Amino acid sequence: EVLTEDPEKAFCTLANREDLNPEEGSIHHCLYQFTRNEKLSENNKLLCDVCTQRHYGPKNIKNEKKYVYTNAKKQMLISLAPPILTLHLKRFQQAGFNLRKVNRHIKFPEVIDLAPFCTVKCKNVAEGNTKVLYSLYGVVEHSGTMRSGHYTAYAKMRNMNNHLSDLVLQGQLPQALETEPPEGQWFHISDTHVQAVSASKVLSSQAYLLFYERLL
């Protein structure tokens, strides 16, 4: 059963995904893979109530276990652009019966556009906008192994964003999008130690959690 108003736009996004060509090992590539179009076939076929009623009739009794499964497509897209975007990277993988930490560096930008990952009818994006921009303001990094380690954070001190406050507290949509991240100073926080650092230092970290705020 198609629940969208326009079935032709069910798999459409605000911006063309095919123009992305994301670099492997980047946050764009992670998002591209997470929101890719999947084909459900063979053992993954979808149970179709409409097909079942068409084949066996509307009086088909469930305990007879007569169902019709059909090939389908599945895609996870963002339907509501959040004021604050939190990206959690999976930094572990199964190795036999053990879990192993993934220490690979994942590239992430200061400004990211979510439009290629948003449904074309994203609820809180003004009609005609083809960009949904977010600015990085926080990173959590973990050092060590799966058994032990230490969490540190990078945080950006910047001016208060009144438009963002309006969106969070009152749901007011922005009149226009800004394309530049707010000016500010990055700091590295490790327990009680705080040190000013450059943006390049932040972008070279092995991020575990990424925090972005919507540019308004």
TrEMBL record:
One of its GO terms (biological process) is protein deubiquitination. Residues 1-215 form the USP domain. Keywords: Hydrolase. Transmembrane segments: none annotated. CDD domains: Peptidase_C19K. The keyword Cytoplasm does not apply. One of its GO terms (molecular function) is cysteine-type deubiquitinase activity. Pfam families: UCH. GO terms for cellular component: cytosol; nucleus. This is UBP16 hydrolase. It comes from Penelope pileata.
